[in-house]
Amino acid sequence: MTPLPARVLPDMAAALCLLFILLVPFAAAGLAVINTGLGRARNAAHMMLSSLCVFALGAIVFFVVGFAWEGYPGGPAYEFILQGKPLNWIAAGQFFFRGLPLDGSPASLAALLGMMSAGFAAVIPLGSGADRWRLGAACVSTAILAGWTYPLFAHWVWGGWLAQLGTNYGLGQGFIDSGGAAPVQAVGGITALAVTWVLGPRRGKYTADRMPMAIPGHHAVLVLLGCFLVWLGWIGLDCAGAMLFTAAEAGRSVLIAVNATVAAAAALLAAAAITRFRFGKPDASLCANGWVSGLVASSAGCAVMPPAAAMIVGLVAGALVTYTVELLELHLTVDDPGGSISVHLIGGIWGVLAVAWLAKVPAGANGSGQWLAQLAGIASLLGFVLPLTYVLTRLLNHFYPLRVAAEGERQGLDLHELGAGAYPDFVSHNDDFLQR
Fold it and tell me: pTM of the entire structure?
């Protein structure tokens, strides 16, 4: 993928792209519902309000400063020279969308998509911090994500030095990621990992000898309902991203929708089959995580893979979820109630790798170089974005503690932070802290 020059979308294509962008909030809503169902009943309202707040704040922060850092291919950017080749590292736009005509141009549509994507990425870490992350701290963390981490890496992927690896160094088509598996999903998953490390596990999650205790989600129906919502929003995200950043024609949206659906379905069935084989019965929460992981993994190559390849991507993603959730919880003592790390970080990395293996490479393109381009993107995620995010999260926790007080966690975040529960007509279980 080479950096796109400034171009003009036909009116019908611009209208269709706008429609796709307006579907993206359904993905955030679905993820919020899934995270709510996977948490405790006494924290349900807090999770939903947190999701709405971080989505709103992410969109605002991206509007204020984020798009100035991300920019759009063909716009002004700062660059450095490597072996005589210019590589963009950050955009040089204006804050508050100044100078950006909001007229349906590709740049204006990319700015709107960025607002939605930044808000969506901010919802991802809430699943890992469920039942113990303060609302105010989550909002401050979102400001960092939407104002710096996400737009910086998004610029690298969609027009910056990663996208230029093909043009400047002959590495395939440069880093390919049509739907945001790396800048949206993996960056959100990295933030989830950093937040989980800093917060530590929930009270009562581990015994004295570090064995995990089961804390089941309180509402499986909400979890499964969220799967339908994220599917609808994901199609919008993938189609809009492909049209704006990989020059996909409007008609390719059919292929993108098919690939997303096939990958999600294959991942769900893989998770159901594996849990049925291992535990005797399918696990609803792991099946839901499998569905979302299939969507995550399909995003990177959604516009450049045949449906059969997308099905393979989904099958692997569904299998990865079932085993990485166990690895993190049982062997690494990482308490991630929503499965955000396994779904979004692991699924996103797998999807980026799968592009080099399964995508249709144009005639004359350097296929082996595509592997290097994709690996360069993953290396920058793990070698730069992860340490940066962890350090910033640690600093934030030092000055503004992320975790709610022990009494607030015991009482429930609904009552402790909001003053009212999500289910006032029902009694929440109070035996969750028998293990201390």
Answer: 0.94
